[in-house]
Amino acid sequence: MPYCFGEDLYPGVPKLNIKTIREHELLAIGDFRVLPFQVLHDDLPILAYRFGSFAYITDMKTIPDSELPYLEGIETLVVNALRWDRPHHSHQLVGEAIEFAHKIGARHTYLTHLTHKIGLHAEASLRLPQDVQFAYDGLQIDV
Q1: Is 94 among the domain residues?
Q2: Angle at Cα 126 formed by Cα 124 and Cα 131, nearest 5°?
Q3: Closest by alpha carbon to 93, among 101, 104, 81?
Q4: Which CB contacts under 8 angstroms, 24+ apart, belong to 24-28?
């Protein structure tokens, strides 16, 4: 068993308080509320997260229709978009991510989990609709 999960910890090892996260069970972190919901990474179910009117989804290829109600009222979306072309079995392309963002009615969308083949930020950004932009390291989003 890894060093930080055993009962007999030696000095300097972090003590973890592990919590199981389940879809549709609201998490409370102080006054902060997080709602996990399910998306699919190919056929593997994974969790995405809603924080009020903000949603964070990465590693998604598709989302079951039954999960769409959990995205009603989302204003700001961070979602994966691997590349422009050459479909991938477990990740969305840029066009698929934009289509998804518009389907759920997100007002502002930030694309993440991009490959370097997207191109230079300034040039590639010109190909995006005005309500969609590329996320970048250090980006801060007011929600």
Answers
A1: yes
A2: 110
A3: 81
A4: 24/70
In a domain, 36, yes or no: yes
DSSP state of 64: -
CATH number at residue 123: 3.60.15.10
| d(C-alpha 34, C-alpha 12), whole Å | 31
Instruction: Name the average pLDDT for the chain.
Output: 94
User: What does the alpha-carbon distance between residue 58 and residue 112 come to, in Å, rounded to a whole number?
Assistant: 7
The predicted structure's pLDDT at residue 34: 97
* pLDDT band, residue 44 (cuts 50/70/90): very high
What is the number of domains present in the chain? 1
Paired strand residues for 76: 54, 108
